[in-house]
């Protein structure tokens, strides 16, 4: 099963117990700075490992709750998969909690748990009032149906329950895209003595490997990932959903800042003008005016700019989505679909948030024509809609694509003729890039398997595809394997799949001992000792004995008679030829013993092996040679 990686966030009002709850769950104090200890508030983002098993790894971000540290809060929440909304039992929902709720909504966070903390400070009746208060505030938000857990971080009440709920919720959730281009918005930059510059952040998508050449955007600085750490442990790779610290070569701390993005591909757009779809908060205190200064929070970046409307000159209140443009003072790196928050710089307040329609926008004229064009962009081009549908479903029929994209059949078939789309099985469509990603995954699995099990012909096909079946339909996986075989990437022997270039072989460390074993076996001819004795004499350990026996049998170097005895392959074939020439079309055990001069303990297993190999067929007390 493919391991999945998630980051969860603790959000809520100042002093409602987020840091204490994080410590109770992880045994890690995430208040790192001296001033945080003194003032008992979180200024910077705090991180801790929560849970790990063979299936899943979960990290926690404790995001600051004080309104002065809203930037850090947004930077933390932007990369998380689940939010634990912390509300103190003795205070209930506070203004900062409401602002956090708005931010979570605009950032598209859909999974949440409500933790009512400090329950030992109030009685049960008061807790019920707090619950009602919270339910009232959560109506219409992403937390409307979120489960409640009552906890007290000091006495550890409810800590086990909330941890189990977090684990269960995330085990049922899809992880971020690990197959896309690597992207990590940087939220911390520091230096380590003797190591150099280190950046830290949450991997939004893709995978990074030690030694990989990367770019710092938007500046375009080329760097190399010298070392990778995940929660203070060295790692060869970091995956989407993980918190990672990466030691970079060829760059100084002074050249970097929070808001820059570490990427593996140049396909992302660097821009100062973006078309967006926004929604505003319900209780907007001040009118949002045309070309008003705004502060954009996207990923971990905070950039000043102006908001430009094309169908109005101000917003007083608005329930629907507004299509508009942001013109920024500094370059950012983003892509379609990225979420963001808009804040007023003075007086400070959250205006709203939304998503990027087009990161490579142009300047347009005021008027309904521009809004109509933005509506088309928002819906996406036919190609974008088809790609998005296939990225989500992985494989769709033409009928399913018509339903998902709202495109007519003629338009669809015209675009599906493009090489980036592939028809397989005569009825299902997928993406060329998905085929390449699956093939690469299978290739990596096989390569790793061959290194560990060099004597095996390959992996059983069902086992090979097992880890991929949660993300891709079986029909698509089968097609990729068969396509890979046709293209000479893979080969198959019976139910086993291997790399086309792989040849099973004995590991170098055991080659000489195997040669000695076969030499001794051949020297003893037909009157062999127990096979176990040959392995022991050759110094071959029990741990590889089974695989080596199977390999030698597949290579016809050894023929197993039964569980105890085996012949050298050449000795066995010579015995077959001798027996065949010394008997007629049929023979019995006595005749075979006369020809080969073997006792019953060898003779019976030998004859049964002839039957098993299809060389003879037993008929009553005799055997008949097959032609």
TrEMBL record:
What would be one Gene Ontology cellular-component term for the protein?
cytoplasm
Stored Pfam families: Beta-barrel_SelB, GTP_EFTU, GTP_EFTU_D2, WHD_2nd_SelB, WHD_3rd_SelB
Q: Which InterPro entries match?
A: Beta-barrel_SelB, EF-Tu_GTPase, EFTu-like_2, Elong_fac_SelB-wing-hlx_typ-2, P-loop_NTPase, SelB_WHD4, Small_GTP-bd, T_Tr_GTP-bd_dom
Keyword annotations for this protein, in alphabetical order, are: Cytoplasm, Elongation factor, GTP-binding, Nucleotide-binding, Protein biosynthesis
The principal location of this protein is cytoplasm
State the source organism's domain of life.
Bacteria
Entry's Gene Ontology BP terms: selenocysteine incorporation
Compartments reported by the entry = Cytoplasm
Limits of the Tr-type G domain? 3-174
Instruction: List GO molecular-function terms, semicolon-separated.
Output: GTP binding; GTPase activity; RNA binding; translation elongation factor activity
User: What's the stated role of this polypeptide?
Assistant: Translation factor necessary for the incorporation of selenocysteine into proteins. It probably replaces EF-Tu for the insertion of selenocysteine directed by the UGA codon. SelB binds GTP and GDP.
Spell out the protein name for this chain. Answer: Selenocysteine-specific elongation factor
Q: Which organism is it from?
A: Neobacillus bataviensis
């Amino acid at each position: 099963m493919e391991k999945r990686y998630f980051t969860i966030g603790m959000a809520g009002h100042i002093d409602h117990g987020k840091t204490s709850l994080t410590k109770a769950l992880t045994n890690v104090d995430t208040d790192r700075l001296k001033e945080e200890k003194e003032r008992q508030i979180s200024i910077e983002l705090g991180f801790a490992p929560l849970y790990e098993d063979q299936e899943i790894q979960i990290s926690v971000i404790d995001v600051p709750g004080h309104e002065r540290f809203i930037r850090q809060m947004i930077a933390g929440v932007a990369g998380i998969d689940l939010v634990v909304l912390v509300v103190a039992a003795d205070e209930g929902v506070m203004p900062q909690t409401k602002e956090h709720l708005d931010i979570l909504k605009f950032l598209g966070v859909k999974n949440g748990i409500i933790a009512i903390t400090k329950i030992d400070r109030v009685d049960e009746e008061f807790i019920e009032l707090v619950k009602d208060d919270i339910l009232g505030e959560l109506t219409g938000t992403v937390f409307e149906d979120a489960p409640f857990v009552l906890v007290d971080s000091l006495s550890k009440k409810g800590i086990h329950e909330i941890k189990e709920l977090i684990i269960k919720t995330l085990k049922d959730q899809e992880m971020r895209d690990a197959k896309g281009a690597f992207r990590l918005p940087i939220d911390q930059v520091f230096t380590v003595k003797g190591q150099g510059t280190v950046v830290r952040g949450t991997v939004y998508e893709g995978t990074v490997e030690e030694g990989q050449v990367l770019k710092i955007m938007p500046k375009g600085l080329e760097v190399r990932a010298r070392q990778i750490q995940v929660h203070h442990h060295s790692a060869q790779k970091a995956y989407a959903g993980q918190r990672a610290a990466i030691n970079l070569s060829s760059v100084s701390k002074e050249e970097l800042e929070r808001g820059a993005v570490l990427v593996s591909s140049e396909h992302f757009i660097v821009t100062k003008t973006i078309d967006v779809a926004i929604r505003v908060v319900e209780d907007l205190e001040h009118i949002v005016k045309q070309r008003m200064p705004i502060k954009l929070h996207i990923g971990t970046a905070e950039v000043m700019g102006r908001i430009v409307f094309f169908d109005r000159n101000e917003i007083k209140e608005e329930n629907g989505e507004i299509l508009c443009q942001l013109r920024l003072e500094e370059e950012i790196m983003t892509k379609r679909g990225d979420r963001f928050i808009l804040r007023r710089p003075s007086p400070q307040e959250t205006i709203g948030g939304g998503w990027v329609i087009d990161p490579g926008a142009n300047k347009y004229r005021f008027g309904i024509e521009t809004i109509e064009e933005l509506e088309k962009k928002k819906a996406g081009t036919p190609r974008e809609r088809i790609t998005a549908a296939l990225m989500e479903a992985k494989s769709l029929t033409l009928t399913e694509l018509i339903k998902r994209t709202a495109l007519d059949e003629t338009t669809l078939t015209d675009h599906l003729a493009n090489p980036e789309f592939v028809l397989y099985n005569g009825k299902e469509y997928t993406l060329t890039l998905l085929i390449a990603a699956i093939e690469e995954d299978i290739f990596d699995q096989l390569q790793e398997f061959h290194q560990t099990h060099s004597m095996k012909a390959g992996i059983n096909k069902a086992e090979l595809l097992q880890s991929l079946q949660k993300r891709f339909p079986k029909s698509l996986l089968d097609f990729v394997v068969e396509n890979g075989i046709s293209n000479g990437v893979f080969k198959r022997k019976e139910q086993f799949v291997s790399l086309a270039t792989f040849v099973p072989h004995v590991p170098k460390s055991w080659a000489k001992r195997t040669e000695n074993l076969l030499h001794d076996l051949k020297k003893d001819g037909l009157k062999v000792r127990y096979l176990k004795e040959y392995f022991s004499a050759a110094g071959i350990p029990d741990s590889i004995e089974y695989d080596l026996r199977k390999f030698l049998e597949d290579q016809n170097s050894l023929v197993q008679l039964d569980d105890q005895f085996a012949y050298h392959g050449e000795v066995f074939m010579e015995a077959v030829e001798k027996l065949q020439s010394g008997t007629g079309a049929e023979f019995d055990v006595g005749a075979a013993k006369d020809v080969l001069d073997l006792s019953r303990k060898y003779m019976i297993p030998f004859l049964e092996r002839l039957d098993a190999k299809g060389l003879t067929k037993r008929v009553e007390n005799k055997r008949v040679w097959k032609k």
